[in-house]
Structures are given as structure tokens and as C-alpha cells.
Design a protein that fits this description.
By secondary structure, the chain is of the alpha/beta class. The protein has two domains: 184 residues, Glycogen Phosphorylase B (Rossmann fold), CATH 3.40.50.2000; 155 residues, Rossmann fold, CATH 3.40.50. It is 48% helix and 15% strand. The chain contains 17 helices and 13 strands. A seven-stranded parallel sheet has the order 3-2-1-4-5-6-7, sandwiched between helices. A six-stranded parallel sheet has the order 10-9-8-11-12-13, with helices on both faces.
């Protein structure tokens, strides 16, 4: 059996790592196709090296464009690969343009699709990720859900066939790599950081970065928080800060280049709190037992809110500062559940595919 896995962005490299590793252990032929959606080495190449993922069979080198053009170019290039390789199944991850392009290309060619991290919903249709999730789920043949909430969302939409609650592969990855990362990373020393004495921030979603007022408010907040703030800066965010002429108080806000997975989970695990608009970083903060302020009006990861480790904030400097500096007022942080699984989502995914395709 030949499986073709399509990835293109940092979170997808992480989500796919435990699955690809286990496929190799079990002798499954897997071809990894990198769309090139994240083309900066710090957002791409370093992850393959650190996570032990085989170098992609192909890098389509698509790069950055407006959503329609980027998705269209990916769709054409992925279709060509599928016609040549004729896989038995494709796997797509999450909610990026790479996810949707892969699903559409396979759907048109009647190639079965497995969607890992299916069923997420924010119900905010202004976010391109929401459209990608919904369309991919409705194209897919096997739906692998990370949480019970995701499974319930699919049932509401009538997607009950071949739907499986397996857990979250990002949780699998963190369990596999965190101890090694803590022993092997020197990022805290390099940045002169003391554990639990700094705030870690990431901002990259177009919802925040493409709006001058919102981005200015977020940067103002990060520059005004009492604790030291570390901001690994996404290339899109860097470009927008420059384009909008937003001033940064560098005496309060330390901006660094994007970091690899090993350094990132060490930064997350040792931070006092996280400020983010990233779905993956929200979860990783929860996995590490670190409180999180999510700069969005909603989140697809409602479990982190319900368990008292995550609070939403609008892109308003006063609100962000208040919630970061008064965490116990907004969060209970009394304990974490097994809502994201037991760390063996990758094995459950393999077992479902093996049973259906006789691997």
C-alpha cells in the first residue's frame, strides 16, 4: 500500500511526525509531499531535521500568495503528483491551504482521503482556516478526530461514517520529544532567560496581522507587559509590522527569528504564560501546564478554555495586558484532563488504516 502525506506548514510537520515515524516502523510506504507553503528554513527545513521526518519526496515550492492563487497552484501541482504516483490513500493534516488543496485534488481523482485533526470548528467564517476545515471534512473518507468535541461537531453535520476518535498527534509529539528537548536545547541560556520569568508570544493569523489597528494593539500590549516578552516573529507578521510602520519597544519586547520545534517547546514549557493566536501553540501550552491568553474572539480548542488553562482576549492592548497580568482572575488551572488522548493517536490512526486497507 502506498500512502501520500501532504504537509506544508509548521503545525503539520509536528502533527505528522509521530504518524510518519510509526508508519516506517510498521513497514508502510509513505511519500511526504511538502507544498512549500512555509518556505523559510526556520519554518520548514529545521522541523524535518529535528523531528526525524524523512526529507519530503517532493517539495512543490509553492510559496506565499493570496489564498485563492496559492490554493490553486497547490491543487494543480498536487494533482500532477497524484496522477503519477497513484497512491492508495492520501493523508492531510489540520486546516491550511495545503490541507484543502490536497483534499480537493484527491477528491477529483477519486483517491481516498484521511483527514487527521478532523472536526474542529471555530464557527468564525471570516477565518480561512474554518472554510478549509469544513470543506476538507466533507471531502474526506476517513475522519480522525482529536477530541470528543470534534467528533460531536461532525455528527451535527451528518458526518458519522468512518469517523474515529483517536486523540491528538501533537500531544503524541510533545510526549515523545519534550524530555529530549529540555536536555538538548540551549535556547534559554542563549536568550538569557530564567524559567517562569518570561512571557512567550506568537502572532501570525491574518485575522490579526492583516488589520493595522489589531496588530498595533497587540504589539503595544506585548511591549507593555511587566514581564519580559519573547516573540518569535513569523515572516508574515514581520512584513506587516514594517508595512504598517508599527513601532516596537525593543527594551520590553524581545523579537527573535522563528525557532525550531525543540527550542519552541522548551520556550513554551518554561514560560510563565503564553500569548498567541495559534491553535497549535494553545494546545502545546495546555500540554505543558502553562496558562494561555489567546488573542482571538473564539477558539476551535474549546477544551483548553473549559479546563481553565486558556482565556480569550480581543485585539485590545488593555484587555490583553489585564488578562496576562491577572491570570488567576481569569483561569483556574486546577488540573488537566485526558481530553487530547493518551499519547497513542498515531498507533490508532495506523490501526484504522490497516484494518480498512489490509496493510
Amino acid at each position: 500500500m502506498k500512502i501520500l502525506s501532504i504537509v506544508g506548514a509548521r503545525p503539520q510537520f509536528i502533527k505528522s511526525a509521530p504518524v510518519s515515524k510509526y508508519f516506517r516502523q510498521m513497514g508502510v510506504e509513505e511519500l511526504i509531499i511538502h507544498t512549500g507553503q512555509h518556505y523559510d528554513d526556520n519554518m520548514s527545513e529545521i522541523f524535518f531535521n529535528e523531528l526525524g521526518i524523512p526529507q519530503p519526496f517532493l517539495n512543490l515550492g509553492v510559496g506565499s500568495y493570496l489564498h485563492g492563487k496559492q490554493t490553486g497552484i497547490m491543487l494543480e501541482k498536487i494533482e500532477n503528483v497524484l496522477l503519477k504516483e497513484k497512491p492508495n490513500l492520501i493523508l492531510v493534516y489540520g486546516d491550511t491551504n495545503s490541507t484543502l488543496a490536497g483534499a480537493l485534488a484527491a477528491c477529483k481523482l477519486n483517491i481516498p482521503i484521511g483527514h487527521i485533526e478532523a472536526g474542529l470548528r471555530s464557527y468564525n467564517k471570516k477565518m480561512p482556516e474554518e472554510h478549509n476545515r469544513v470543506l476538507t471534512d466533507h471531502c474526506s473518507n476517513i475522519l480522525f478526530c482529536p477530541t470528543q468535541t470534534a467528533l460531536d461537531n461532525l455528527k451535527i453535520e451528518g458526518l458519522c461514517d468512518n469517523t474515529h476518535l483517536v486523540g491528538d498527534t501533537m500531544y503524541d509529539a510533545l510526549l515523545q520529544f519534550l524530555d529530549l528537548a529540555e536536555k538538548g536545547s540551549n535556547v534559554l541560556d542563549k536568550l538569557n532567560l530564567t524559567s517562569k520569568k518570561y512571557i512567550l508570544a506568537t502572532i501570525h493569523r491574518p485575522y490579526n496581522t492583516d488589520d493595522q489597528y489589531k496588530l498595533n494593539q497587540i504589539i503595544l500590549a506585548l511591549s507593555s507587559i511587566t514581564d519580559k516578552v519573547i516573540l518569535p516573529l513569523h515572516p508574515r507578521t514581520r512584513e506587516k509590522i514594517k508595512e504598517f510602520g508599527i513601532s516596537v519597544n525593543k527594551s520590553k519586547l524581545t523579537i527573535i527569528d522563528p525557532v525550531g520545534y525543540v527550542d519552541m517547546i522548551v520556550l513554551e514549557n518554561n514560560s510563565k504564560a503564553v500569548v498567541t493566536d495559534s491553535g497549535g501553540v494553545q494546545k502545546e501550552a495546555y500540554f505543558c501546564g502553562v496558562p494561555c491568553v489567546t488573542v482571538r474572539p473564539e477558539t476551535e480548542w474549546v477544551e483548553t478554555i473549559e479546563d481553565g488553562w486558556n482565556v480569550l482576549a480581543n485585539a485590545n492592548s488593555a484587555e490583553i495586558i489585564d488578562k496576562v497580568e491577572n491570570l488567576t482572575k481569569y483561569l483556574n488551572m486546577n488540573g488537566r484532563s485526558d481530553v487530547f488522548g493518551d499519547g497513542y493517536a498515531h498507533k490508532k490512526i495506523f490501526n484504522v488504516i490497516s484494518k480498512q486497507y489490509g496493510m
